[in-house]
Amino acid sequence: SISPMPSPPFHLPHSVRPLTVPASKSEPEEDVNEASPALDAILRSNSGGLNKIMCANRGEIAVRVFRAGTELGMRTVAIFSEVDRLATHRYKADESYMVNAGETPVGAYLGYEGIIKAAKQNGVQAIHPGYGFLSENADFARRCEEEGIIFIGPRSETITQMGDKVIAKALAIECGLPVVPGSDTATSDVEDAVKFAEEFGMPIMLKVIPDTCSLY
Length: 216
Known about the structure:
Elements: E1 3-6, H1 37-46, E2 52-55, H2 59-71, E3 75-80, H3 88-91, E4 95-98, H4 112-121, E5 126-128, H5 138-146, E6 150-151, H6 156-162, H7 165-174, H8 190-200, E7 206-209, E8 212-215
Parallel strand pairs: 2-3, 2-5, 3-4, 5-6
Antiparallel strand pairs: 1-4, 7-8
Helix pairs in contact: 5-6
């Protein structure tokens, strides 16, 4: 179930507000924390037509996403699990919704279908995954693409490719990037490891791939 709960607008606590660094006597006083007008213009232009974003995460990273969204003039949306109903991050967004009721505290943030449902029901245009949880989940990114929601991160195809060590290395070689010497394919044969060690010397490193490994 999805329970809406409007939240107060984001206010930066006094304790973490930026301080102005005093200028030296030989230089004119200047607020070094003032954003560059050019940088500000770039950030706002790249936000395009987005006016409502969700962070599919909790805690510190969610608060940071909401702060950035607020600074760019966007409306922000938080999600929370049942046990996080009093968590700080949900009160730092303009809106907050409980997702995946009945799930474990972690499971609620991994159930991407429930998160996407909440996003669509509340007019969210883009979802930022934060870090951990769904940030490297290609299926989540793909479902966002299918539902017409912008995934703030790599394309699902890129996440899939970079999540496979063998594919990622092959792509790096294809792009002409230097790589650490290693086996071109995964193997589960001990003899392959022995031949590799004889050619490149010891020590060698094994990188685990499901049911096999790569040698470096």
